[in-house]
Specification:
- By secondary structure, the chain is α/β, with parallel strands linked by helices.
- About 50% of the residues lie in helices and about 15% in strands.
- About 0% of the residues have low confidence.
Length: about 300
Amino acid sequence: MAATDHPLKRLVSLFIDDFAAWLLNCPVRETQPLNIELAADLLATDQVFRVTLADGRDLVLHLEFQGRRSHPPMPWRMLEYMPRLAVTYRLPLWSVVFYVGTGAGVDDTGRHEIQGPAAVAPLVWHYQVVHLWRMPAEDLLALDQPALLALVGQTRLDRPAVVLPAVVARLRQVPDAEVRGRLLTVLLALLPQGEMVTMVEKLLEDERLLLDTPYLRRLREEGREEGREEGREEGREEGREEGLLVARRRSIVDVLTLRFAAPEATIQQVAQYVETLTDEAALERLFAAAVRSASLAEFQTALTQG
C-alpha cells in the first residue's frame, strides 16, 4: 500500500473529527493528535488521537493502515500496541485497523485469543476491522460525509461510471474552497491508476486550480518507486531507525495541517525541511512544538530556533 499510505493518513489527520464520529458511532466534540511513539523500545504506531465525545468523555482512538503484507502479522502487532497505549494514556481505548488492497486482512476478524489449558482463554484482545476493499462504494455514499467520500477509490467500485460522478458532485458542494481542494486531491490520490483517474480528472477540469497537482505527481512517483523497492526488498523489513524517522517527519506535517490549516506552500516548506533532519531528538522536539504551539507563527519560531 505504498502509494496509498500517506494520502490515507493525511485524509484522516485533516478530517479526524469526521472519522472519529464514524468509527466510534457517536458525536464528537474535539480531537487532538497524540504521540505515535510508545515507550520502551520506541514502538511506532500509525496514528493516535485523543477524542472528546459530545458527552464529555475522553478516549484514545488508535488507527493502523495495513496492506496485504504485515511482518509480524497484524494481530500480534496489535497485541503489542494496545497494552502500551492503555498504560501510556490511562484512558478508554478504541483501536481500528484499515485493510487496504484486495485480499488484505481477509482472515482478520478483529477478535483474537490465546488458549490456556482449561476452557477459559487467559488472554483476549479486540479491535475494529475495516476492510475498505470489501466495502461497497454505495455504502460510503450513503453516509453522506464528504471526508469519507475521498476513500471511495479504495472501496469496492462495481459501478464506477455511476458512483464516481456522484462522489464528485457531492464534493463540489463543499463550500470552503480550500477544504474542497484537499478532498478532491486525496480522492484522486486514492483512486486506482487508469480509467478511473482519467474519468475523475475529466469531471474536475474546471476545478484544476484547486488541486494540489505537485502533491499528486509526487505521490504517484513515490508509489511507483516504493513499489519497485518492495519488489526488490520483499522478505526484508524496513530498517527500524529510518522507519521511525519517516513516521516522525510525517507526523509533524500532519499535525500542522490538522491544527492550523496552514497554506500548502508552508506545509511543503516544513516537509522539505524535516526531510533534511536525521536527528531523532530534533524531530521529537519539533513534533512537541507542533502539538503545543498556540499558532503557526509560534511553531515557525521553534523551527528557526532548531
